[in-house]
């Protein structure tokens, strides 16, 4: 466990941003930190990165109480980008790398590699203000990971990217995970959560309302609904419920919910009536789970 958050609370005037939030971040994986706007995600990130302090509770980094010496082991890409617009890209990244403790020589060697990987080899002398939002995002991503932090916190990292560049960043995130980095990934893009995250934490109205492995959470929220594709309509008994049925390109697509029967009983009841073309369970997406939990 790289990070343990124990009963953290934070109050701003009349607003309770975090209320007794506890969670653990497994080492070497990607944790999705989810929640609606104003839920408390950014407040928690700012406490982890020591930009602000908690009013109550404690945070432990690799079993040590979080302290200033841990800042160098963390890389943070905030949602509000912060580059010096008048500086050249190379000059700025050299400066930021040395603030993180790298020598000029090491910084330059690592930057050459990252410029190649991010397909920005001719950007060294460009001014930041001359870059598009997506191009600036690439520069800030490099600044976040250049010092090879153990924990990387990414707040909406795909904002401003076209699909090609979003794919480049996604591939680099997966490479960082494979190299042993731990990543906290805060986003509203549920398709990114489905693709990248191993573990999920959902915060709503300052409280944690969901915490666990992504696959376990999806299993817990199963609705026992199945899609059956057949060449004709069929009837079922009271152990099952037809939610919807329609014909598409000569195939009848029927959504059936199991009430108190079994999958085998369902199949055995329809096979004598029709030809079964396709059959699969309809597993709720993270987007469905997110919306249902927040609404409830």
Give a short synopsis of this structure.
The protein is an alpha/beta fold. The protein has 9 helices and 14 strands.
Explain this structure.
This protein folds into two domains: 3-219, Rossmann fold (3-Layer(aba) Sandwich), CATH 3.40.50.300; 223-295. Helices cover 32% and strands 30% of the residues. It has helices spanning 41-48, 89-99, 104-117, 133-145, 163-178, 190-196, 214-220, 263-270, 286-295; strands at 3-12, 15-25, 30-34, 56-61, 64-65, 74-77, 151-155, 182-186, 199-204, 207-213, 225-230, 240-248, 251-258, 276-281. The strands form three sheets. Strands 6-7-8-3-9-10 form a six-stranded mixed beta sheet, with helices on both faces. Strands 2-1-4-5 form a four-stranded antiparallel beta sheet, with helices on one face. Helix 2 (89-99) packs across helix 3 (104-117).
Structural descriptors:
296 residues; alpha/beta; Rossmann fold; 4-stranded antiparallel sheet; 14 strands; globular
The percent of residues in helical segments reads 25-40%
What is the number of beta strands? Answer: 14
Task: Specify the number of helices.
Answer: 9
Top-tier CATH class of the largest domain = Alpha Beta
Write the layout of secondary structure elements.
Elements: E1 3-12, E2 15-25, E3 30-34, H1 41-48, E4 56-61, E5 64-65, E6 74-77, H2 89-99, H3 104-117, H4 133-145, E7 151-155, H5 163-178, E8 182-186, H6 190-196, E9 199-204, E10 207-213, H7 214-220, E11 225-230, E12 240-248, E13 251-258, H8 263-270, E14 276-281, H9 286-295
Parallel strand pairs: 3-8, 3-9, 6-7, 7-8
Antiparallel strand pairs: 1-2, 1-4, 4-5, 9-10, 11-13, 11-14, 12-13
